[in-house]
Protein backbone atom coordinates (compact mmCIF):
# COMPACT_ATOMS: atom_id res chain seq x y z
CA UNK A 1 0.00 0.00 0.00
CA UNK A 2 1.24 3.45 -0.86
CA UNK A 3 0.56 6.43 1.33
CA UNK A 4 -1.79 7.86 -1.30
CA UNK A 5 -4.10 4.84 -1.32
CA UNK A 6 -7.51 5.57 0.19
CA UNK A 7 -8.11 3.88 3.55
CA UNK A 8 -9.62 0.40 3.31
CA UNK A 9 -13.28 0.44 4.34
CA UNK A 10 -13.63 -1.56 7.54
CA UNK A 11 -16.14 -4.05 6.16
CA UNK A 12 -14.16 -4.86 3.00
CA UNK A 13 -12.04 -7.56 4.68
CA UNK A 14 -15.23 -9.26 5.91
CA UNK A 15 -16.79 -9.17 2.44
CA UNK A 16 -13.60 -10.55 0.89
CA UNK A 17 -13.44 -13.36 3.46
CA UNK A 18 -17.01 -14.34 2.62
CA UNK A 19 -16.54 -14.16 -1.17
CA UNK A 20 -13.29 -16.10 -1.29
CA UNK A 21 -14.42 -18.87 1.05
CA UNK A 22 -17.68 -19.13 -0.90
CA UNK A 23 -15.66 -19.51 -4.09
CA UNK A 24 -13.51 -22.26 -2.58
CA UNK A 25 -16.57 -24.15 -1.32
CA UNK A 26 -18.15 -23.82 -4.77
CA UNK A 27 -15.23 -25.83 -6.12
CA UNK A 28 -16.60 -28.86 -4.26
CA UNK A 29 -19.71 -29.02 -6.50
CA UNK A 30 -19.78 -32.48 -8.05
CA UNK A 31 -16.86 -33.74 -5.93
CA UNK A 32 -18.31 -34.15 -2.42
CA UNK A 33 -18.02 -37.48 -0.56
CA UNK A 34 -21.79 -37.89 -0.11
CA UNK A 35 -24.82 -36.30 -1.72
CA UNK A 36 -25.89 -34.71 1.57
CA UNK A 37 -22.58 -32.82 1.64
CA UNK A 38 -23.09 -31.58 -1.93
CA UNK A 39 -26.18 -29.89 -0.54
CA UNK A 40 -24.58 -28.71 2.73
CA UNK A 41 -21.38 -27.27 1.23
CA UNK A 42 -23.36 -25.47 -1.48
CA UNK A 43 -25.65 -24.11 1.20
CA UNK A 44 -22.76 -22.66 3.16
CA UNK A 45 -21.20 -21.29 -0.04
CA UNK A 46 -24.49 -19.59 -0.92
CA UNK A 47 -24.85 -18.07 2.55
CA UNK A 48 -21.32 -16.67 2.34
CA UNK A 49 -21.89 -15.32 -1.14
CA UNK A 50 -25.04 -13.59 0.08
CA UNK A 51 -23.06 -12.03 2.92
CA UNK A 52 -20.31 -10.85 0.56
CA UNK A 53 -22.88 -9.27 -1.74
CA UNK A 54 -24.58 -7.44 1.14
CA UNK A 55 -21.25 -6.16 2.47
CA UNK A 56 -20.06 -5.07 -1.00
CA UNK A 57 -23.35 -3.36 -1.73
CA UNK A 58 -22.84 -1.35 1.44
CA UNK A 59 -19.54 -0.11 -0.06
CA UNK A 60 -20.97 0.93 -3.43
CA UNK A 61 -20.40 4.64 -2.79
CA UNK A 62 -16.72 4.09 -2.10
CA UNK A 63 -15.73 1.15 -4.31
CA UNK A 64 -18.38 0.77 -7.03
CA UNK A 65 -20.80 -2.05 -7.80
CA UNK A 66 -20.52 -5.49 -6.22
CA UNK A 67 -19.20 -6.87 -9.51
CA UNK A 68 -16.56 -4.16 -9.82
CA UNK A 69 -15.43 -4.97 -6.30
CA UNK A 70 -15.29 -8.71 -6.94
CA UNK A 71 -14.04 -8.89 -10.52
CA UNK A 72 -11.96 -5.79 -11.19
CA UNK A 73 -9.61 -5.60 -8.23
CA UNK A 74 -6.10 -6.99 -8.42
CA UNK A 75 -4.79 -9.59 -6.01
CA UNK A 76 -3.03 -7.00 -3.82
CA UNK A 77 -6.27 -5.07 -3.28
CA UNK A 78 -8.07 -8.03 -1.66
CA UNK A 79 -8.20 -7.88 2.13
CA UNK A 80 -9.33 -11.42 2.96
CA UNK A 81 -7.36 -13.47 5.47
CA UNK A 82 -5.06 -16.09 4.02
CA UNK A 83 -6.99 -18.91 5.71
CA UNK A 84 -9.99 -18.64 3.36
CA UNK A 85 -7.91 -18.64 0.18
CA UNK A 86 -6.15 -21.92 1.03
CA UNK A 87 -6.98 -24.67 -1.48
CA UNK A 88 -9.66 -27.19 -0.51
CA UNK A 89 -7.35 -30.18 -0.09
CA UNK A 90 -9.20 -33.29 1.05
CA UNK A 91 -12.51 -33.20 2.91
CA UNK A 92 -10.74 -33.04 6.29
CA UNK A 93 -8.77 -30.01 5.13
CA UNK A 94 -11.95 -28.24 4.05
CA UNK A 95 -13.72 -29.10 7.31
CA UNK A 96 -10.85 -27.86 9.48
CA UNK A 97 -10.72 -24.64 7.44
CA UNK A 98 -14.47 -24.32 8.05
CA UNK A 99 -14.04 -24.98 11.76
CA UNK A 100 -11.32 -22.37 12.14
CA UNK A 101 -13.19 -19.78 10.11
CA UNK A 102 -16.72 -20.27 11.41
CA UNK A 103 -15.51 -20.27 15.03
CA UNK A 104 -14.12 -16.83 14.22
CA UNK A 105 -16.86 -15.46 11.97
CA UNK A 106 -19.84 -16.40 14.12
CA UNK A 107 -18.86 -14.50 17.29
CA UNK A 108 -17.44 -11.66 15.18
CA UNK A 109 -20.74 -11.19 13.31
CA UNK A 110 -22.62 -11.50 16.60
CA UNK A 111 -20.56 -8.61 18.02
CA UNK A 112 -20.83 -6.50 14.88
CA UNK A 113 -24.40 -7.21 13.84
CA UNK A 114 -25.77 -3.84 15.04
CA UNK A 115 -23.37 -1.96 12.76
CA UNK A 116 -22.97 -4.34 9.80
CA UNK A 117 -25.10 -3.97 6.66
CA UNK A 118 -26.04 -7.64 7.05
CA UNK A 119 -29.40 -9.11 7.92
CA UNK A 120 -29.63 -10.74 11.33
CA UNK A 121 -29.95 -13.96 9.40
CA UNK A 122 -26.23 -13.84 8.61
CA UNK A 123 -25.50 -14.41 12.30
CA UNK A 124 -27.82 -17.40 12.35
CA UNK A 125 -26.25 -18.72 9.16
CA UNK A 126 -22.77 -18.65 10.66
CA UNK A 127 -24.06 -20.54 13.71
CA UNK A 128 -25.20 -23.29 11.36
CA UNK A 129 -21.84 -23.27 9.55
CA UNK A 130 -20.09 -23.65 12.87
CA UNK A 131 -22.32 -26.51 13.92
CA UNK A 132 -21.72 -28.26 10.59
CA UNK A 133 -17.93 -27.92 10.95
CA UNK A 134 -17.97 -29.08 14.57
CA UNK A 135 -20.08 -32.15 13.85
CA UNK A 136 -17.78 -33.20 11.03
CA UNK A 137 -14.63 -32.51 13.02
CA UNK A 138 -15.98 -34.86 15.70
CA UNK A 139 -16.85 -37.55 13.16
CA UNK A 140 -13.51 -37.35 11.41
CA UNK A 141 -11.38 -36.96 14.53
CA UNK A 142 -13.10 -39.86 16.27
CA UNK A 143 -13.99 -42.05 13.25
CA UNK A 144 -11.14 -44.16 11.88
CA UNK A 145 -7.38 -44.08 12.12
CA UNK A 146 -7.23 -42.71 8.60
CA UNK A 147 -9.79 -39.95 9.19
CA UNK A 148 -8.10 -39.00 12.45
CA UNK A 149 -4.69 -38.79 10.73
CA UNK A 150 -6.01 -36.70 7.86
CA UNK A 151 -7.79 -34.32 10.22
CA UNK A 152 -4.78 -33.86 12.49
CA UNK A 153 -2.62 -33.15 9.41
CA UNK A 154 -5.13 -30.54 8.25
CA UNK A 155 -5.08 -28.95 11.70
CA UNK A 156 -1.27 -28.85 11.66
CA UNK A 157 -1.14 -27.36 8.15
CA UNK A 158 -3.80 -24.69 8.65
CA UNK A 159 -2.80 -23.70 12.17
CA UNK A 160 -0.35 -21.07 10.96
CA UNK A 161 -3.14 -19.15 9.23
CA UNK A 162 -5.20 -18.72 12.41
CA UNK A 163 -3.18 -15.96 14.11
CA UNK A 164 -4.12 -13.48 11.43
CA UNK A 165 -7.81 -13.71 12.28
CA UNK A 166 -7.26 -11.65 15.41
CA UNK A 167 -5.14 -8.87 13.98
CA UNK A 168 -7.35 -5.83 14.54
CA UNK A 169 -9.22 -4.57 11.48
CA UNK A 170 -9.10 -0.81 11.58
CA UNK A 171 -12.53 0.73 11.98
CA UNK A 172 -14.20 -2.27 13.62
CA UNK A 173 -15.00 -1.80 17.28
CA UNK A 174 -14.15 -5.26 18.56
CA UNK A 175 -12.22 -6.52 21.56
CA UNK A 176 -9.89 -8.67 19.48
CA UNK A 177 -8.13 -10.16 22.48
CA UNK A 178 -11.41 -11.36 23.92
CA UNK A 179 -12.46 -12.71 20.50
CA UNK A 180 -9.16 -14.62 20.25
CA UNK A 181 -9.71 -16.16 23.68
CA UNK A 182 -13.24 -17.18 22.83
CA UNK A 183 -11.99 -18.73 19.59
CA UNK A 184 -9.24 -20.70 21.35
CA UNK A 185 -11.66 -22.02 23.95
CA UNK A 186 -14.16 -23.04 21.25
CA UNK A 187 -11.58 -24.79 19.09
CA UNK A 188 -9.96 -26.52 22.08
CA UNK A 189 -13.32 -27.83 23.21
CA UNK A 190 -13.98 -29.40 19.80
CA UNK A 191 -10.44 -30.80 19.63
CA UNK A 192 -10.83 -32.38 23.07
CA UNK A 193 -14.01 -34.13 22.05
CA UNK A 194 -12.57 -35.14 18.68
CA UNK A 195 -9.30 -36.44 20.13
CA UNK A 196 -7.23 -33.89 18.20
CA UNK A 197 -4.09 -32.15 19.43
CA UNK A 198 -3.57 -28.39 19.43
CA UNK A 199 -0.41 -27.79 17.38
CA UNK A 200 2.58 -26.07 18.89
CA UNK A 201 3.70 -24.43 15.65
CA UNK A 202 3.60 -20.71 14.91
CA UNK A 203 0.33 -19.02 14.09
CA UNK A 204 1.74 -16.72 11.45
CA UNK A 205 1.02 -17.03 7.75
CA UNK A 206 3.30 -16.91 4.74
CA UNK A 207 4.41 -13.37 5.57
CA UNK A 208 3.46 -12.30 9.03
CA UNK A 209 0.23 -12.47 10.92
CA UNK A 210 -2.13 -9.95 9.35
CA UNK A 211 -0.56 -10.07 5.90
CA UNK A 212 -3.77 -10.97 4.07
CA UNK A 213 -5.51 -8.01 5.62
CA UNK A 214 -2.82 -5.84 4.04
CA UNK A 215 -3.13 -7.41 0.62
CA UNK A 216 -0.30 -9.92 0.88
CA UNK A 217 -1.58 -13.32 -0.14
CA UNK A 218 -0.37 -16.86 -0.82
CA UNK A 219 0.40 -18.16 -4.33
CA UNK A 220 -2.82 -20.16 -4.84
CA UNK A 221 -4.83 -16.95 -4.45
CA UNK A 222 -3.63 -15.45 -7.73
CA UNK A 223 -4.82 -18.53 -9.61
CA UNK A 224 -8.17 -18.40 -7.82
CA UNK A 225 -8.66 -14.80 -8.97
CA UNK A 226 -7.46 -15.60 -12.50
CA UNK A 227 -10.20 -18.17 -12.83
CA UNK A 228 -12.88 -16.15 -11.06
CA UNK A 229 -12.29 -12.90 -12.93
CA UNK A 230 -11.34 -14.15 -16.38
CA UNK A 231 -14.72 -14.12 -18.10
CA UNK A 232 -15.90 -10.87 -16.54
CA UNK A 233 -12.68 -9.12 -17.55
CA UNK A 234 -12.76 -10.56 -21.09
CA UNK A 235 -15.86 -8.51 -21.89
CA UNK A 236 -15.26 -5.04 -20.47
CA UNK A 237 -18.46 -3.18 -19.70
CA UNK A 238 -20.74 -6.08 -20.65
CA UNK A 239 -23.92 -6.82 -18.71
CA UNK A 240 -24.60 -10.41 -17.68
CA UNK B 1 -54.90 -44.98 -0.78
CA UNK B 2 -55.30 -47.99 -2.98
CA UNK B 3 -57.22 -51.19 -2.53
CA UNK B 4 -54.16 -53.37 -3.19
CA UNK B 5 -52.65 -53.22 0.27
CA UNK B 6 -50.60 -56.08 1.52
CA UNK B 7 -47.93 -55.99 4.19
CA UNK B 8 -44.38 -55.92 2.81
CA UNK B 9 -43.56 -59.28 4.31
CA UNK B 10 -47.11 -60.51 4.26
CA UNK B 11 -46.43 -63.22 1.71
CA UNK B 12 -46.56 -66.05 4.21
CA UNK B 13 -50.01 -65.03 5.34
CA UNK B 14 -51.23 -64.86 1.75
CA UNK B 15 -49.68 -68.18 0.69
CA UNK B 16 -52.38 -70.77 0.96
CA UNK B 17 -52.01 -74.45 1.77
CA UNK B 18 -53.18 -75.46 -1.68
CA UNK B 19 -50.63 -75.30 -4.46
CA UNK B 20 -46.89 -74.65 -4.38
CA UNK B 21 -45.87 -71.08 -3.60
CA UNK B 22 -44.60 -69.04 -6.55
CA UNK B 23 -41.18 -67.47 -6.82
CA UNK B 24 -42.22 -64.72 -4.40
CA UNK B 25 -43.67 -67.16 -1.94
CA UNK B 26 -47.25 -66.56 -3.01
CA UNK B 27 -49.54 -69.23 -4.33
CA UNK B 28 -50.80 -68.61 -7.84
CA UNK B 29 -54.35 -67.88 -6.71
CA UNK B 30 -53.23 -65.14 -4.38
CA UNK B 31 -50.99 -63.71 -7.10
CA UNK B 32 -53.83 -63.46 -9.55
CA UNK B 33 -56.03 -61.79 -6.93
CA UNK B 34 -53.29 -59.26 -6.20
CA UNK B 35 -52.66 -58.76 -9.91
CA UNK B 36 -56.35 -58.07 -10.49
CA UNK B 37 -56.44 -55.56 -7.65
CA UNK B 38 -53.28 -53.89 -8.97
CA UNK B 39 -54.71 -53.67 -12.50
CA UNK B 40 -57.94 -52.19 -11.16
CA UNK B 41 -56.06 -49.57 -9.15
CA UNK B 42 -53.92 -48.54 -12.13
CA UNK B 43 -56.97 -48.42 -14.40
CA UNK B 44 -58.79 -46.23 -11.87
CA UNK B 45 -55.80 -43.84 -11.75
CA UNK B 46 -55.14 -44.67 -8.13
CA UNK B 47 -51.63 -44.52 -6.73
CA UNK B 48 -49.59 -47.60 -6.01
CA UNK B 49 -47.74 -47.20 -2.69
CA UNK B 50 -44.58 -48.92 -1.39
CA UNK B 51 -46.43 -51.44 0.78
CA UNK B 52 -48.81 -52.47 -1.99
CA UNK B 53 -48.29 -55.63 -3.96
CA UNK B 54 -46.96 -54.91 -7.46
CA UNK B 55 -45.76 -57.09 -10.34
CA UNK B 56 -42.00 -57.69 -10.29
CA UNK B 57 -41.65 -56.20 -13.76
CA UNK B 58 -43.44 -53.02 -12.66
CA UNK B 59 -41.05 -52.73 -9.73
CA UNK B 60 -37.95 -53.31 -11.82
CA UNK B 61 -39.11 -50.90 -14.54
CA UNK B 62 -39.61 -48.22 -11.91
CA UNK B 63 -36.23 -48.87 -10.30
CA UNK B 64 -34.55 -48.67 -13.70
CA UNK B 65 -36.30 -45.43 -14.61
CA UNK B 66 -35.95 -43.72 -11.22
CA UNK B 67 -32.29 -44.73 -10.97
CA UNK B 68 -31.57 -43.37 -14.44
CA UNK B 69 -33.30 -40.16 -13.47
CA UNK B 70 -31.40 -39.88 -10.16
CA UNK B 71 -28.08 -40.59 -11.90
CA UNK B 72 -28.90 -37.91 -14.50
CA UNK B 73 -29.37 -35.36 -11.72
CA UNK B 74 -26.00 -36.02 -10.11
CA UNK B 75 -24.03 -36.42 -13.35
CA UNK B 76 -25.87 -33.36 -14.65
CA UNK B 77 -24.25 -31.30 -11.89
CA UNK B 78 -20.88 -31.59 -13.66
CA UNK B 79 -21.35 -29.63 -16.89
CA UNK B 80 -22.87 -26.72 -14.97
CA UNK B 81 -20.50 -26.85 -11.99
CA UNK B 82 -17.83 -26.38 -14.67
CA UNK B 83 -18.87 -22.69 -14.74
CA UNK B 84 -19.45 -21.86 -11.07
CA UNK B 85 -15.89 -20.62 -10.57
CA UNK B 86 -16.05 -18.48 -13.71
CA UNK B 87 -19.58 -17.07 -13.48
CA UNK B 88 -19.29 -13.48 -14.75
CA UNK B 89 -21.31 -11.72 -12.04
CA UNK B 90 -22.01 -12.43 -8.37
CA UNK B 91 -25.73 -12.67 -9.10
CA UNK B 92 -25.12 -15.32 -11.78
CA UNK B 93 -22.71 -17.15 -9.50
CA UNK B 94 -25.38 -17.37 -6.78
CA UNK B 95 -28.07 -18.55 -9.22
CA UNK B 96 -25.81 -21.20 -10.72
CA UNK B 97 -24.66 -22.51 -7.36
CA UNK B 98 -28.26 -22.75 -6.20
CA UNK B 99 -29.21 -24.60 -9.37
CA UNK B 100 -26.43 -27.17 -9.03
CA UNK B 101 -27.40 -27.59 -5.38
CA UNK B 102 -31.02 -28.23 -6.43
CA UNK B 103 -29.80 -31.02 -8.68
CA UNK B 104 -28.05 -32.71 -5.76
CA UNK B 105 -31.33 -32.33 -3.84
CA UNK B 106 -33.27 -33.91 -6.71
CA UNK B 107 -30.81 -36.80 -6.65
CA UNK B 108 -31.60 -37.25 -2.95
CA UNK B 109 -35.39 -37.31 -3.47
CA UNK B 110 -35.08 -39.76 -6.34
CA UNK B 111 -32.69 -42.17 -4.62
CA UNK B 112 -35.15 -41.96 -1.73
CA UNK B 113 -38.03 -42.90 -4.06
CA UNK B 114 -35.99 -45.87 -5.33
CA UNK B 115 -35.36 -46.95 -1.73
CA UNK B 116 -39.13 -47.31 -1.22
CA UNK B 117 -38.90 -50.06 -3.85
CA UNK B 118 -36.26 -51.90 -1.85
CA UNK B 119 -33.14 -50.72 -3.69
CA UNK B 120 -30.51 -48.78 -1.73
CA UNK B 121 -28.70 -45.68 -2.95
CA UNK B 122 -25.37 -47.48 -2.49
CA UNK B 123 -26.44 -50.31 -4.77
CA UNK B 124 -27.61 -47.90 -7.47
CA UNK B 125 -24.44 -45.82 -7.27
CA UNK B 126 -22.34 -48.97 -7.60
CA UNK B 127 -24.25 -49.84 -10.77
CA UNK B 128 -23.77 -46.34 -12.15
CA UNK B 129 -20.05 -46.42 -11.42
CA UNK B 130 -19.72 -49.86 -13.00
CA UNK B 131 -21.43 -48.54 -16.15
CA UNK B 132 -24.37 -50.92 -15.65
CA UNK B 133 -27.00 -48.19 -15.34
CA UNK B 134 -27.40 -45.18 -17.56
CA UNK B 135 -27.92 -41.48 -17.13
CA UNK B 136 -29.27 -39.00 -19.66
CA UNK B 137 -26.95 -38.83 -22.68
CA UNK B 138 -27.33 -35.07 -22.86
CA UNK B 139 -24.74 -34.68 -20.10
CA UNK B 140 -22.11 -36.27 -22.30
CA UNK B 141 -21.81 -32.98 -24.20
CA UNK B 142 -19.34 -30.35 -22.91
CA UNK B 143 -20.14 -26.83 -21.67
CA UNK B 144 -17.69 -24.79 -23.72
CA UNK B 145 -18.80 -21.23 -22.98
CA UNK B 146 -20.84 -19.35 -20.40
CA UNK B 147 -23.78 -19.31 -22.82
CA UNK B 148 -23.94 -23.11 -22.50
CA UNK B 149 -25.22 -22.60 -18.95
CA UNK B 150 -28.12 -20.64 -20.45
CA UNK B 151 -28.72 -23.17 -23.23
CA UNK B 152 -28.82 -26.01 -20.71
CA UNK B 153 -31.37 -24.15 -18.62
CA UNK B 154 -33.56 -23.15 -21.52
CA UNK B 155 -33.36 -26.27 -23.71
CA UNK B 156 -32.18 -29.17 -21.55
CA UNK B 157 -34.25 -28.26 -18.49
CA UNK B 158 -37.08 -27.27 -20.81
CA UNK B 159 -37.02 -30.73 -22.41
CA UNK B 160 -36.74 -32.34 -18.98
CA UNK B 161 -39.83 -30.48 -17.76
CA UNK B 162 -41.80 -31.51 -20.86
CA UNK B 163 -40.83 -35.10 -20.06
CA UNK B 164 -41.36 -34.85 -16.33
CA UNK B 165 -44.58 -32.91 -15.82
CA UNK B 166 -46.64 -35.98 -16.84
CA UNK B 167 -44.64 -38.03 -14.31
CA UNK B 168 -46.31 -36.03 -11.53
CA UNK B 169 -49.34 -38.20 -12.37
CA UNK B 170 -47.33 -41.42 -12.58
CA UNK B 171 -49.01 -44.46 -10.99
CA UNK B 172 -46.28 -44.97 -8.38
CA UNK B 173 -46.95 -42.60 -5.45
CA UNK B 174 -43.45 -41.79 -4.13
CA UNK B 175 -42.11 -41.11 -7.63
CA UNK B 176 -45.09 -38.93 -8.55
CA UNK B 177 -44.70 -36.90 -5.35
CA UNK B 178 -40.95 -36.45 -5.82
CA UNK B 179 -41.66 -35.23 -9.35
CA UNK B 180 -44.08 -32.54 -8.16
CA UNK B 181 -41.31 -30.91 -6.16
CA UNK B 182 -38.67 -31.45 -8.83
CA UNK B 183 -40.83 -29.95 -11.58
CA UNK B 184 -41.38 -26.77 -9.56
CA UNK B 185 -37.63 -26.27 -9.23
CA UNK B 186 -36.96 -27.26 -12.84
CA UNK B 187 -39.30 -24.59 -14.06
CA UNK B 188 -37.24 -22.02 -12.15
CA UNK B 189 -34.11 -23.48 -13.79
CA UNK B 190 -35.65 -23.21 -17.22
CA UNK B 191 -36.58 -19.56 -16.65
CA UNK B 192 -33.10 -18.65 -15.40
CA UNK B 193 -31.61 -20.23 -18.54
CA UNK B 194 -33.93 -18.26 -20.78
CA UNK B 195 -33.22 -15.06 -18.87
CA UNK B 196 -29.45 -15.69 -19.04
CA UNK B 197 -29.66 -16.05 -22.83
CA UNK B 198 -31.86 -12.97 -23.06
CA UNK B 199 -29.18 -10.92 -21.27
CA UNK B 200 -26.61 -12.21 -23.78
CA UNK B 201 -28.72 -11.56 -26.86
CA UNK B 202 -29.35 -8.01 -25.65
CA UNK B 203 -25.67 -7.55 -24.87
CA UNK B 204 -22.58 -7.08 -27.01
CA UNK B 205 -21.95 -8.68 -30.39
CA UNK B 206 -19.59 -11.18 -28.75
CA UNK B 207 -22.23 -12.14 -26.19
CA UNK B 208 -24.87 -12.59 -28.88
CA UNK B 209 -22.54 -14.82 -30.90
CA UNK B 210 -21.81 -16.85 -27.78
CA UNK B 211 -25.53 -17.42 -27.24
CA UNK B 212 -26.16 -18.46 -30.86
CA UNK B 213 -23.22 -20.86 -30.83
CA UNK B 214 -24.50 -22.52 -27.65
CA UNK B 215 -28.01 -22.95 -29.05
CA UNK B 216 -26.54 -24.36 -32.29
CA UNK B 217 -24.75 -27.04 -30.27
CA UNK B 218 -27.51 -27.89 -27.76
CA UNK B 219 -30.64 -27.88 -29.97
CA UNK B 220 -30.36 -31.33 -31.55
CA UNK B 221 -29.10 -33.16 -28.46
CA UNK B 222 -32.08 -31.64 -26.59
CA UNK B 223 -34.51 -33.13 -29.11
CA UNK B 224 -32.82 -36.50 -28.60
CA UNK B 225 -33.61 -36.31 -24.88
CA UNK B 226 -37.14 -37.58 -25.61
CA UNK B 227 -35.66 -40.91 -26.64
CA UNK B 228 -35.93 -42.89 -29.86
CA UNK B 229 -38.95 -42.54 -32.17
CA UNK B 230 -42.08 -44.32 -30.93
CA UNK B 231 -41.72 -47.29 -33.27
CA UNK B 232 -38.23 -48.04 -31.90
CA UNK B 233 -38.78 -47.36 -28.21
CA UNK B 234 -38.14 -50.56 -26.28
CA UNK B 235 -39.97 -49.87 -23.02
CA UNK B 236 -42.70 -47.47 -24.05
CA UNK B 237 -45.78 -49.63 -24.55
CA UNK B 238 -45.63 -51.46 -21.23
CA UNK B 239 -44.82 -48.23 -19.33
CA UNK B 240 -47.82 -46.51 -20.91
CA UNK B 241 -50.07 -49.41 -19.90
CA UNK B 242 -48.79 -49.16 -16.32
CA UNK B 243 -49.28 -45.38 -16.39
CA UNK B 244 -45.64 -44.82 -15.49
CA UNK B 245 -45.48 -43.03 -18.81
CA UNK B 246 -48.38 -40.96 -20.11
CA UNK B 247 -47.33 -39.67 -23.53
CA UNK B 248 -45.19 -41.11 -26.32
CA UNK B 249 -41.66 -39.89 -27.06
CA UNK B 250 -42.66 -38.31 -30.37
CA UNK B 251 -45.67 -36.61 -28.84
CA UNK B 252 -43.53 -34.98 -26.14
CA UNK B 253 -40.82 -34.04 -28.64
CA UNK B 254 -43.39 -32.24 -30.80
CA UNK B 255 -44.78 -30.44 -27.77
CA UNK B 256 -41.25 -29.23 -26.91
CA UNK B 257 -40.52 -27.99 -30.44
CA UNK B 258 -43.82 -26.11 -30.49
CA UNK B 259 -42.91 -24.38 -27.22
CA UNK B 260 -39.34 -23.52 -28.25
CA UNK B 261 -39.89 -21.96 -31.67
CA UNK B 262 -41.68 -18.80 -30.46
CA UNK B 263 -39.28 -18.53 -27.51
CA UNK B 264 -36.28 -18.63 -29.87
CA UNK B 265 -37.90 -15.85 -31.89
CA UNK B 266 -38.39 -13.76 -28.76
CA UNK B 267 -34.73 -14.30 -27.90
CA UNK B 268 -33.68 -13.32 -31.41
CA UNK B 269 -31.88 -16.63 -31.88
CA UNK B 270 -32.07 -19.04 -34.82
CA UNK B 271 -32.74 -22.73 -34.22
CA UNK B 272 -30.28 -24.69 -36.38
CA UNK B 273 -32.85 -26.51 -38.50
CA UNK B 274 -33.56 -25.34 -42.08
CA UNK B 275 -36.62 -27.60 -42.22
CA UNK B 276 -38.39 -25.93 -39.33
CA UNK B 277 -41.73 -24.55 -40.59
CA UNK B 278 -45.28 -24.12 -39.39
CA UNK B 279 -47.66 -26.79 -40.62
CA UNK B 280 -51.13 -25.25 -40.75
CA UNK B 281 -52.82 -28.58 -41.31
CA UNK B 282 -51.25 -30.32 -38.30
CA UNK B 283 -51.25 -27.21 -36.15
CA UNK B 284 -47.62 -27.99 -35.23
CA UNK B 285 -44.11 -27.06 -36.27
CA UNK B 286 -42.50 -29.51 -38.71
CA UNK B 287 -38.85 -30.16 -38.02
CA UNK B 288 -35.93 -31.87 -39.73
CA UNK B 289 -34.65 -35.42 -39.33
CA UNK B 290 -32.77 -36.23 -36.15
CA UNK B 291 -29.36 -37.86 -36.51
CA UNK B 292 -30.13 -41.03 -34.56
CA UNK B 293 -26.69 -42.40 -35.38
CA UNK B 294 -25.19 -39.71 -33.15
CA UNK B 295 -27.72 -40.56 -30.43
CA UNK B 296 -26.76 -44.24 -30.52
CA UNK B 297 -23.05 -43.46 -30.51
CA UNK B 298 -23.34 -41.24 -27.43
CA UNK B 299 -25.55 -43.84 -25.76
CA UNK B 300 -22.91 -46.49 -26.47
CA UNK B 301 -20.33 -44.41 -24.63
CA UNK B 302 -18.74 -42.58 -27.54
CA UNK B 303 -19.98 -39.06 -26.78
CA UNK B 304 -17.53 -36.24 -26.15
CA UNK B 305 -17.64 -36.53 -22.34
CA UNK B 306 -18.88 -40.02 -21.40
CA UNK B 307 -15.58 -41.14 -19.94
CA UNK B 308 -14.86 -37.84 -18.24
CA UNK B 309 -18.26 -37.68 -16.51
CA UNK B 310 -18.16 -41.23 -15.21
CA UNK B 311 -14.54 -40.89 -14.18
CA UNK B 312 -15.22 -37.77 -12.11
CA UNK B 313 -18.19 -39.48 -10.46
CA UNK B 314 -16.14 -42.57 -9.61
CA UNK B 315 -13.28 -40.46 -8.31
CA UNK B 316 -15.56 -38.37 -6.07
CA UNK B 317 -17.04 -41.59 -4.69
CA UNK B 318 -13.66 -43.26 -4.14
CA UNK B 319 -12.13 -40.14 -2.61
CA UNK B 320 -15.10 -39.95 -0.28
CA UNK B 321 -14.89 -43.56 0.89
CA UNK B 322 -12.78 -42.75 3.96
CA UNK B 323 -15.21 -39.98 4.93
CA UNK B 324 -18.21 -42.29 4.78
CA UNK B 325 -16.28 -44.96 6.71
CA UNK B 326 -15.33 -42.40 9.36
CA UNK B 327 -18.93 -41.23 9.76
CA UNK B 328 -20.11 -44.84 10.14
CA UNK B 329 -17.31 -45.68 12.60
CA UNK B 330 -18.07 -42.59 14.70
CA UNK B 331 -21.79 -43.42 14.76
CA UNK B 332 -21.02 -46.99 15.85
CA UNK B 333 -18.67 -45.78 18.60
CA UNK B 334 -21.27 -43.28 19.76
CA UNK B 335 -23.97 -45.88 20.09
CA UNK B 336 -21.56 -48.30 21.80
CA UNK B 337 -20.64 -45.54 24.29
CA UNK B 338 -24.31 -44.73 24.82
CA UNK B 339 -25.23 -48.33 25.59
CA UNK B 340 -22.17 -48.68 27.83
CA UNK B 341 -23.27 -45.57 29.71
CA UNK B 342 -26.78 -46.97 29.94
CA UNK B 343 -25.46 -50.31 31.25
CA UNK B 344 -23.26 -48.70 33.89
CA UNK B 345 -26.13 -46.47 35.00
CA UNK B 346 -28.35 -49.52 35.34
CA UNK B 347 -25.60 -51.33 37.29
CA UNK B 348 -25.22 -48.37 39.63
CA UNK B 349 -28.94 -48.06 40.24
CA UNK B 350 -29.30 -51.75 41.13
CA UNK B 351 -29.28 -52.41 44.88
From TrEMBL, chain A:
Q: Which organism is it from?
A: Streptomyces smyrnaeus
Per the UniProt record, one Pfam family is PaaA_PaaC
Q: Which domain of life is it from?
A: Bacteria
- Name the PANTHER family for this protein: 1,2-PHENYLACETYL-COA EPOXIDASE, SUBUNIT C, PHENYLACETIC ACID DEGRADATION PROTEIN PAA
- Which NCBIfam families does the record match to this protein? PA_CoA_Oxy3
Q: Which InterPro entries match?
A: Aromatic_CoA_ox/epox (IPR052703), Ferritin-like (IPR012347), Ferritin-like_SF (IPR009078), PaaA_PaaC (IPR007814), PaaC (IPR011882)
UniProt protein name: Phenylacetate-CoA oxygenase subunit PaaC
UniProtKB/TrEMBL annotation, chain B:
Q: Cite the Gene3D superfamilies for this sequence.
A: 1.20.1260.10
Region annotated Disordered sits at 1-26, 324-351
Q: Which InterPro entries match?
A: Aromatic_CoA_ox/epox, Ferritin-like, Ferritin-like_SF, PaaA, PaaA_PaaC
Q: Which SUPFAM superfamilies match?
A: Ferritin-like
The UniProt record lists the keyword Ribosomal protein: no
Q: Where is the composition biased (Low complexity)?
A: 7-23, 324-338
**Do you know which NCBIfam families this protein is assigned to?**
PA_CoA_Oxy1
Which UniProt keywords are present, listed alphabetically? Answer: Oxidoreductase
Q: Which domain of life is it from?
A: Bacteria
Q: What is its EC number?
A: 1.14.13.149
Kindly provide the name given to this protein in its UniProt entry.
1,2-phenylacetyl-CoA epoxidase subunit A
Alphabetically, the GO molecular function entries are: phenylacetyl-CoA 1,2-epoxidase activity
